[in-house]
Specification:
Layout lengths: L7 H9 L7 H8 L7 H5 L28 E10 L12 E15 L5 E15 L2 E11 L2 H11 L7 H5 L3 H8 L4 E4 L5 E5 L3 E25 L3 E23 L7 E22 L8 E7 L3 E18 L2 E19 L3 E10 L3 E11 L4 E3 L16 H10 L2 E14 L2 E10 L26 E18 L2 E17 L15 E4 L2 E11 L1
Antiparallel strand pairs: 1-2, 1-21, 2-3, 3-7, 4-7, 5-6, 7-8, 8-9, 9-10, 9-11, 10-13, 11-12, 12-15, 13-14, 14-16, 16-17, 17-18, 18-19, 19-20, 19-21
Helix pairs in contact: 4-6
Length: 519
């Protein structure tokens, strides 16, 4: 029997932390936001919080639609590709998308102070989850099944009993049923260990698809062309899917261990955004934009499915031991962090416009809660999961976004645009998926992989055309981002080793076209 060594920190996590299937990586995915919207907005790197007068600003600084003097309607479509992607589970490396539809209606009051009250609606795709990760490498004898064995051992489970299944994550029970791990018993029949498989190499593929749709309903006011104030009420529709294929091989054997995981997350949310734009000097085009976004409150439903296949060799014959199981849909809530932004902009000779912005959000302040969930660790505060809150503080951090954009009227009716958009990394360098937790939903965990994403650099260019009431805008966006993927983490410190993370890139190209009409 192997000797198990559990550090005091891991023991504390095991003994006292009420874990939930919702992990820090899914929370982080809900807080992210793509650079998306109208092609003009994207072509300027999303830097229009102080310049205003664009439909997409309803989702960043709603005061910006207070600068409208005419009604506006626009539609946007896009085409996105991931250069290193692959076609996987019917998801192609490239995909077309309908990204935006919006309308602003101006109301000219003609007052001495309050000149306009404008109303707006805008739909845009907040997140496009389409993503492919494919890596392979050597395991040094480690196996994903070691994670299953560790979790079963740490929880004191006897997987030959129903009680044992209730105390481990779903994939551990499925792995046991397929023979990926075996119980080691003493002479009295008590489980003293679990024996995993060994592996020499692995291949890992994960595809994600779906998105978050954002619907903003806005109102903005223009006070004496000096102060613009606005508010937006946002509704969100979430549809997220992922599929994982993970293979392990041993030298000298033609077949390997297979683990498959499918997840589905759906739901809805809402938030409120408020902002102002100030022109401190009446004779100057210089302006300052301020905006604050409340958290987004999501109501979500999660379900998943696991499949495990283990080859067994008898002479020259091979048979496959297979098992599968799924998690029935269950509900929970997520609250994302607050968000604050500051912008400054100006125009030069009515031919050049420049906007610079900074935005901040502390991801570690997000929270998760479950209906009818309570235990001593929540300090009597109802259904909020405080152990996951501690995980967020340990692994997530404050995230900064910098946006810079410029637009130039190069010829009558033609506009050239360029922008830069930077988003800092959301995770700390040593972040990991902690499965050593206990609680009513710990058995809902259905996978072992996690990805630590790096910073995002976005470079954009755009071209616009205006003719009377009609306009057309084109934008190209190149997004560069790297990350490190871990197929699993070994929790038994006696091994003295971990599966090394594999670096990859998530670079992608995005082409956008907006057609609009002002009246």
């Amino acid at each position: 029997m192997k000797t198990r060594i559990i550090s005091s920190a891991l023991f504390f996590a095991l003994a006292f932390a009420p874990a939930l299937a919702q992990d820090i990586y899914k929370v982080q995915a809900l807080t992210d936001q793509d650079l998306n919207g109208t092609a003009r907005f994207v072509g300027m790197g999303g830097a229009m919080n102080a310049l205003g007068a664009d439909l997409s600003t309803m989702g960043t600084n709603p005061a910006a639609i207070g600068l409208y003097r005419r009604n506006d309607f626009a539609l946007t479509g896009s085409f996105t590709s991931q250069p290193n992607g692959e076609s996987f589970v019917d998801i192609d490396k490239s995909r077309a998308s309908f990204d935006q539809a919006g309308l602003v209606l101006k109301t000219n009051l003609g007052g001495n102070s309050l000149k306009f009250i404008n109303f707006g609606f805008n739909y845009q795709k907040r997140r496009n989850f389409k993503q492919f990760i494919g890596v392979d490498g050597l395991t040094g004898g480690l196996s994903q099944t070691q994670t299953m064995a560790d979790l079963a051992y740490f929880r004191g489970a006897d997987l030959a009993t129903d009680q044992g299944y209730n105390s481990v994550p779903l994939f551990t029970g499925v792995g046991y049923d397929a023979g990926a791990i075996e119980a080691v018993r003493d002479q009295d029949g008590k489980v003293t260990d679990y024996s995993p498989l060994n592996a020499d190499s692995y291949t890992f593929k994960r595809a994600q698809w779906g998105g978050i749709s954002q619907f903003d309903f806005s109102l903005a006011m223009n006070f004496d062309d000096q102060i613009y104030a606005g508010v937006s009420f946002g509704l969100y529709d979430l549809n997220f899917h992922s599929a994982v294929d993970y293979f392990e091989f041993q030298s000298g054997y033609p077949d390997g261990y297979l683990f498959q995981n499918e997840e589905k997350l759906t739901g809805s949310g809402f938030d409120v955004k408020a902002g102002v734009i100030l022109r401190p000097i009446a004779e100057s085009p210089f302006r300052i934009g301020l905006a604050v976004h409340t958290p987004t409150w999501y109501n979500l439903t999660y379900e998943s499915f696991n499949f495990v296949s283990v080859p067994e060799y008898n002479g020259g014959q091979v048979t496959f031991n297979e098992a599968q199981d799924g998690i029935q849909p269950y509900d929970y809530k997520v609250r994302t962090p607050w968000k604050f932004s500051l912008a400054a902009a100006t125009t030069i000779a009515n031919r050049v416009a420049i906007d610079v912005e900074y935005e901040y959000s502390d991801l570690s302040t997000a929270s998760v809660s479950y209906p009818d969930y309570d235990d001593w660790y929540s300090y009597g505060n109802g259904n909020r999961d405080y152990s996951l809150k501690d995980e967020m503080k340990e692994c997530l951090k404050g995230q900064s976004t910098v946006r810079v954009g410029a637009e130039a009227n190069i010829l009558p009716g033609f506009f050239l645009r360029a922008g830069y958009n930077f988003v800092s990394a959301p995770m700390k360098d040593d972040a990991f998926l902690n499965l050593l937790v206990d609680g009513q939903s710990s058995n809902y965990a259905s996978g072992t992989d996690f990805v630590n994403l790096g910073e995002i650099n976005r470079f954009t260019v755009g071209l616009g055309y205006r003719h009377k009431n009609f306009y057309a805008d084109f934008a190209y966006q190149y997004q560069a981002q790297t990350g490190t993927v871990y197929a699993f983490r070994v929790y038994d410190e006696a091994h003295g080793a971990q599966l090394a993370g594999k670096d990859f890139d998530l670079n992608r190209n995005n082409f956008m076209l907006t057609l609009g009409f002002k009246f």
